Amino acid sequence: MNMPSLDDLDREIARLATLLTEREQLMPRRTALRAAITKADAELASLTRLADRATGPARLLASLRGGRAEAAAAGVRLPAAREELAALRAQLDDLSARLDEARSTPSAYAAALAAKEKHLRDTGHPTGERLSELAGLRGDLVAELARLQRAEIAAGKAAEGFRRADELLGSAGKWSAYDTFMGGGRFGSHLKHQRIESADDYVAAAQHQVDVMRHELGDDREAAPISLDINGTTKFLDVMFDNIFTDLAVRSRINRGQKEIVEAFLRVREIRAALTARTAEVRDRLRKLETERDALLVPLPRPPG
User: Which key words are in the record (predicted)?
Assistant: First the structure.
């Protein structure tokens, strides 16, 4: 099988580029046509209602209201409105068919560029060396972008976990104050520990997401864990005997836990902002590399004649 020549590849790229431009121009036209059809359809419905007043039971009502002239005028305009709506729908059908035919144009254009790139690199063309460099740079940036996106998602989940844990500890702190100073009894102690345990679950999930984030960023150092675990004996005494000493111990642990969680939340939020900025930077660099690659691959328009 004969390989296509460079001229053949350039002609195919130029042909597909023309189709791609046409496709990009047709898409907003389709949107405008759909809006025009909606408007024409509503106008036709309105004219039909007005015209109906000139006949049947509505005729007397129209006469009483002095609307017979308006109804007659609507009847005159109806045929033109129907024709206009039919013409718009025919245009939309034609345009949609052309867009359906051009549906594969973007992928075909990308494939044509890739074929030319391979040809230039395989044949030792001077441009091939730079294209190889660009391919390597693009591959590195695409891989980095994927890691950044996964890390950013993990950071978002971690921040949400820490936020929920802080809310629950805030609620536990209120019950702790009530338990300590107002004699909340077993019920208050039970609710307090229930919220602490729920907060601990959220913290564990958030720390897992932090580990995911650190792994994606190539930082495999172990993060210092945040623990809200209340000593089993302390919890038992707090619930069963509800004495002020265990109440104060639990309250102190809640306050320390909240401080650690807020610090972790703020740090994760800071890292997430940095990840967002870096992601934007990588996307910008990718766009510039794509622009340079296209400039090397897309043939310049040939002068007429």
Answer: Coiled coil, Exonuclease, Hydrolase, Nuclease
